[in-house]
Specification:
The chain is an alpha+beta fold. The protein is built from 5 helices and 5 strands, in the order ββββαβαααα. The protein has a 5-stranded mixed β-sheet with strand order 4-3-2-1-5. The model has no long low-confidence stretch (mean pLDDT 85).
Length: 174
């Protein structure tokens, strides 16, 4: 019986989240499984991954094959690095204590990068909320229309006054 580490889809349409499970390769995607190892939510930023790494390491040790996506998740969480270090211990390249120390250092560095990503995302959300908060934007000032010089206006008024004078002269005399 071939055993696989794979994703089991949950959630509603267009809003998936997944359970990471150990299942027989012949069982359907959302069907019967042996053990649930964790949860993966790709919709959130950054993606939320909860994984029981000890159990995943155990299942990899007894021969379970991960799918491509689960393999990427295991690599991200350090389970494959731990398996790599364990092979080095078995070959005699270094001791178990050294392997454990190397693994703990890697986990600490990884957790710090993850926490910085989460903090950056929280800051991004706060900035977005600040930008769309209830403060009213200033109205755009109306463009200033320049008036014609005063000299031209007086010349125009003299021209209009001249015909009025001429109408008085043409009036009948008594």
């Amino acid at each position: 019986m071939a055993v696989k580490l794979r994703l089991q889809r949950k959630g509603r349409k267009k809003a998936p989240y997944y359970h990471i499970v150990v299942a027989d390769s012949r069982s359907p995607r959302d069907g019967k499984f042996i053990e649930r190892l964790g949860m993966y939510n790709p919709i959130s930023k950054p993606a939320i991954i909860e994984l029981d790494s000890d159990r995943a390491f155990y299942w990899l040790g007894v021969g379970a094959q991960p799918t491509d996506t689960v393999n990427a998740i295991l690599k991200y969480k350090g389970v494959l690095y731990r398996k790599h270090l364990q092979r080095g211990v078995k070959k005699g390249a270094f001791s178990q204590e050294t392997a454990d120390k190397m693994y703990q250092d890697w986990i600490a560095a990884k957790e710090s990068t993850i926490s910085s990503k989460v903090a950056a995302r929280k800051q991004e959300i706060a900035d977005m909320h600040k930008a769309i908060s209830g403060t009213k934007k200033e109205a755009k000032p109306k463009p200033v229309v320049e008036e014609a010089p005063a000299v031209e206006e007086s010349a125009v008024s003299e021209e209009t006054a001249a015909p009025e004078v001429s109408t008085e002269e043409t009036a009948p005399a008594e």
